[in-house]
């Protein structure tokens, strides 16, 4: 049997509202060609993010009903704490309302002007939080990770030589933290190998730099290690995940990804003094230490989700469904990031729309075209998200122009995915009709969330 | 003939229950010691009746639970957000909405936008997290509540009122340009849940308008305040709670809301403003701290529960039963001679620890001590609102607040009248043996908001 079926069946459904291409044209204009400004009821297939969009299990919903909403000392917290301790092996657990709050707390304590946070690749909110503290974020991705069309097993790896050089250049004292993002989201959901984590850990230890994991998709990464890295085929994903965390001094987690929760996150660490500082900040902006700004029921849902995600039948189905869509697109000649990542398909918009220059945002133009043609909502990860301006207000483009189609966990069926591939292929066949975009209005930070755009005059 | 009593009764019946654990005196003794005599550090499973807070502890209605199932968890443009936006406009009357994961998220953003270093923020009594965010943004809080508020036995009906002479003096001293806004709370928490009158609000509006100073409303218990206006203020007895709430808000420019109180949800809050520029800045900032502006760090289902809860919170029958239960408990305590803050407030009973334990000096934390003793008697968890909560000034000295209180906050729609009887009887027992109670010393003190995590030892 070659078909892999979902290790679950559907218990509750949510209707999708259909609309026409003519209606979508108006909607897109009204949303200023920014998918973040489209109302969700106007979207047919929502691949904007896999964050907080998972379908929870009946067990998680049962946990929700058991949530203890006491302000302090809720048993829901203790169940959550125990699960996170067990999986990460870390003793100090701090809940937060979502992942960015965990980052915000950590970087406000460790970051300041003149400091550098090194990483394989930092994600948008992570980078924003670092820059907000006055520090700089530095991406040191391995060479394979820079070429979307060349397959390699661990394209999320950090370039260890570059790390050594960077430490030598800036001094270990100016690097408060090294962060490994698993899987590497901005770099195509590509995994990091255990070997690479061990090497980075060694360098960090030698230089007394703490190593943190951005653990949003730790289970997907652990499953890739099992599939691809020598010596791990017979190990359980749970034990691989535990080994991965054993090399880290701490982690930040958005439970909205691999914990199947719709809200929530946490910080875990080994250093008591740092944890106490984090807790003091937590109380100010998030909530008391035993709820961190979450309802008790959400702590329950996270605890249950963290155990469900380590089920290997689920991970096999999850990884295989991303690969299924990727392979369909490759067969039709659509330029996509290879090999398939863990949570999303990444289209190479630079190659897809080679006629549109970076300052006309080819990724964003493609996002608009996919919505217009099939009601699919995706997101640009390119010059709109990461581009900057030089002193002459000229755009410094991002290294890559990608469009991410993130697949929510346990939400869409194979026929939804078939529909998505058909829409993309049809848009690809008519790609010469797509026009570039120009920005009319943008905020100073995280501009991709609220920027307004319009098509360039032809 | 004695007149027949008019009892309040709940305008709802119970649909789902949560089982409670009973504890023995020996278990409570150990639990309290392990928690460093700080009720915040008790495990909730060791608590029989939890009156620590009315925040996030409400029982949601079946309609709210149904709304939870209608959560639209899309990252951007969730249907639940638009529903919530519509309800906030309709019920509260503010133009622009920014959801946040809870009230302090809104306070953080608002303080960062409006306060510059050296600014003065006058308000009707401090609240812990509110003042902290004002200070962290570089501002200084100045208390302008009327003097009656600091007297637990004064029976003035609107002890949450602002003393306009104090405000005028501040404006004269610092200049209006140094005052970005007046921080006006309805149902003033630290004063014992005391209301502000509509007349006072109108006068505040007139004065601030003259000096072009904004009024920002801490509206977490606005419906409870509206109930007292309806009951006590001339000209309001025939108006609905919804009408009164809207009128209150009409005299303000914006609000921070912890929806975990009045709005009957377990998580959630928002910032609402009428000023487009403040809104735009807040929308850019919320992404960094909370989440995209159409979810603000909340699950879609929680926005839906909030939208439905806001509607339920301004129902006259609901508020009458809510405040009726609090008054019932207060009257039972007074029957036993227990000294409490009067008039009785909207969300809890505040026991006067200075009068309850007159032999314990404020340096030895009478309210903290009393909270521990109340737990030891029957497993009832309360909260200190006195010298520990007040914290320290910038120069390191303790604030010594006039009010040294223990707060018995009643969660909404959770406990029955029989629970209220148990509470009153337990407090009466502690009151009987008050002479044998001694103070405490603080053995661990965190830098900010020390009451949450401080630890104590018995003297």
Describe the model.
The complex is a heterodimer of chains A (458) and B (459). Chain A is 40% helix and 14% strand. With 458 residues, chain A is an alpha/beta fold. Chain A has a seven-stranded mixed beta sheet with strand order 2-8-7-6-5-3-4, sandwiched between helices. In chain A, strands 9-14-11 form a three-stranded antiparallel beta sheet. In chain A, strands 1-10 form a two-stranded parallel sheet. In chain A, α5 links the parallel β3 (116-119) and β4 (136-139). In chain A, α4 runs parallel beside α5 and α12 packs parallel to α16 (414-429). Chain A is globular. By secondary structure, chain B is α/β, with parallel strands linked by helices. Chain B is built from 16 helices and 14 strands. In chain B, the strands form five sheets. In chain B, strands 2-8-7-6-5 form a five-stranded mixed beta sheet, sandwiched between helices. A three-stranded antiparallel beta sheet of chain B has the order 9-12-11. The model of chain B has no long low-confidence stretch (mean pLDDT 95). Classes of the chains: A alpha/beta (458), B alpha/beta (459). Chains A and B meet through α4, α5, α10 and α11 of A and α4, α5, α10 and α11 of B.
| β-strand number of chain B | 14
Physical arrangement of strands within the biggest beta sheet of chain B: 2-8-7-6-5
Secondary-structure class of chain A: alpha/beta
Mass-distribution shape of chain A: globular
Pick out its properties.
heterodimer; A: 458 residues; alpha/beta; seven-stranded mixed sheet; three-stranded antiparallel sheet; 16 strands; B: 459 residues; five-stranded mixed sheet; 14 strands
């Amino acid at each position: 049997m070659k078909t892999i079926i979902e290790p679950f069946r559907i218990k509750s459904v949510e209707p999708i509202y259909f609309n026409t291409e003519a209606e979508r044209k108006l909607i897109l204009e009204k949303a200023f060609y920014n998918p973040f400004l489209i109302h969700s009821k106007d979207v047919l297939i929502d691949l904007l993010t896999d964050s907080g969009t998972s379908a929870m299990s009946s067990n998680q919903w049962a946990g929700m009903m058991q949530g203890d909403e006491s302000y302090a000392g809720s048993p829901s917290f203790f169940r959550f704490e125990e699960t996170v301790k067990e999986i990460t092996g870390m003793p100090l657990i701090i809940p937060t309302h979502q992942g960015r709050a965990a980052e915000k707390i950590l970087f406000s304590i460790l970051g300041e002007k003149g400091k550098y946070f090194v990483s394989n690749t930092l994600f948008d909110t992570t980078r924003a939080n670092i820059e907000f503290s006055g520090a700089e974020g530095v991406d040191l991705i391995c060479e394979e990770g820079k070429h979307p069309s060349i397959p390699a097993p661990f394209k999320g790896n950090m370039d260890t030589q570059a790390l050594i050089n960077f430490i030598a250049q800036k001094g270990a004292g100016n690097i408060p933290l090294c962060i490994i993002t698993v899987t590497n989201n901005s770099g195509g959901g590509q995994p990091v190998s255990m070997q690479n984590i061990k090497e980075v850990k060694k360098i960090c230890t030698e230089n007394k730099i703490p190593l943190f994991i951005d653990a949003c998709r730790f289970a997907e990464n652990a499953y890739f290690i099992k599939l691809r890295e020598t010596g791990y085929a017979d190990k359980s994903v749970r034990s691989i995940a535990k080994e991965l965390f054993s090399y880290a001094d701490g982690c930040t987690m958005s439970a909205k990804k691999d914990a199947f929760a719709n809200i929530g996150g946490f910080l875990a660490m080994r250093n008591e003094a740092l944890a106490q500082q984090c807790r003091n900040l937590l109380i100010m902006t998030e909530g008391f230490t035993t709820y961190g700004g979450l309802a008790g029921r959400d702590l329950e849902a996270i605890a249950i989700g963290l155990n469900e995600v380590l089920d290997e039948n689920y991970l096999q189905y999850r990884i295989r469904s991303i690969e299924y869509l990727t392979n369909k697109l490759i067969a039709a000649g659509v330029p996509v990031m290879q090999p398939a990542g863990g949570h999303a398909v990444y289209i190479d918009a630079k190659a897809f729309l080679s006629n549109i220059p970076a300052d006309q945002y080819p990724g964003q133009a493609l996002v608009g075209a996919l919505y217009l043609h099939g009601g699919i909502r995706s997101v640009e990860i390119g010059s709109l998200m990461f581009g900057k301006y030089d002193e002459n207000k000229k755009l410094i483009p991002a290294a890559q122009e990608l469009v991410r189609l993130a697949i929510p966990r346990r939400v869409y069926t194979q026929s939804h995915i078939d529909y998505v591939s058909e829409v993309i292929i049809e848009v690809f066949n008519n790609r010469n009709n797509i026009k570039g975009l120009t920005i009319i209005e943008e905020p100073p930070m995280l501009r991709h969330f609220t920027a307004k755009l319009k098509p360039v005059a032809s | 003939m004695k007149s027949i009593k008019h009892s309040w009764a709940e305008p709802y019946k119970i649909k789902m229950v949560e089982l409670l654990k009973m504890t023995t005196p020996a278990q409570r003794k150990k639990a309290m010691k392990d928690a460093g005599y700080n009720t915040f550090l008790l495990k909730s499973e060791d608590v029989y009746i939890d009156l620590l807070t009315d925040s996030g502890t409400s029982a949601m209605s079946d309609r709210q639970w149904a709304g939870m199932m209608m959560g639209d968890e899309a990252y951007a443009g969730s249907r639940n957000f638009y529903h919530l936006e519509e309800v906030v406009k309709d019920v509260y009357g503010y133009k622009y909405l920014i959801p946040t994961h809870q009230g302090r998220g809104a306070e953080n953003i608002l303080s960062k936008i409006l306060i510059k270093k050296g600014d003065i923020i006058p308000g009707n009594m401090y609240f812990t997290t509110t003042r902290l965010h004002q200070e962290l943004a570089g501002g200084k809080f100045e208390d302008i509540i009327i003097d009656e508020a600091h007297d637990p036995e004064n029976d003035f009906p609107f002890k949450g009122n602002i003393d306009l002479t104090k405000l005028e003096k501040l404006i004269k001293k610092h200049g209006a340009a140094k005052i970005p806004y007046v921080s006006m709370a309805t149902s003033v928490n630290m004063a014992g849940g005391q209301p502000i009158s509509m007349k006072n609000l109108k006068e505040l509006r007139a004065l601030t308008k003259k000096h072009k100073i904004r009024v920002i409303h801490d509206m977490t218990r606005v419906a409870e305040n509206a109930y007292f206006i309806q009951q006590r203020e001339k000209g309001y007895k025939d108006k609905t709670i919804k009408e009164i709430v809207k009128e209150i808000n009409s005299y303000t420019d914006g609000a921070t809301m912890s929806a975990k109180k009045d709005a009957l949800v377990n998580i959630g809050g928002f910032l609402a403003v009428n000023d487009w520029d403040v809104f735009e800045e807040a929308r850019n900032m919320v992404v960094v701290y909370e989440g995209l502006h159409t979810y603000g760090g909340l699950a879609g289902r929680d926005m839906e529960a909030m939208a439905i809860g806001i509607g339920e919170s301004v129902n006259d029958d609901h508020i009458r039963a809510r405040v009726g239960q609090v008054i019932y408990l207060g009257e039972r305590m007074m029957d036993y001679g227990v000294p409490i803050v009067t008039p009785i407030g909207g969300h809890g009973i505040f026991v006067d620890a200075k009068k309850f334990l007159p032999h314990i000096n404020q340096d030895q934390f009478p309210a903290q001590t009393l909270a521990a003793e109340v737990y030891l008697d029957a497993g009832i968890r309360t909260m200190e609102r006195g010298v520990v909560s007040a914290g320290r000034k910038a120069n390191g000295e303790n604030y010594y607040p006039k009010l040294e209180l223990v707060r018995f906050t009643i969660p909404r729609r959770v406990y029955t009248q029989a629970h209220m009887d148990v509470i009153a009887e337990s407090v009466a027992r502690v009151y009987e043996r008050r002479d044998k109670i001694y103070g405490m010393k603080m053995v661990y003190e965190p830098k900010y908001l020390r009451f949450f995590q401080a630890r104590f030892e018995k003297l």
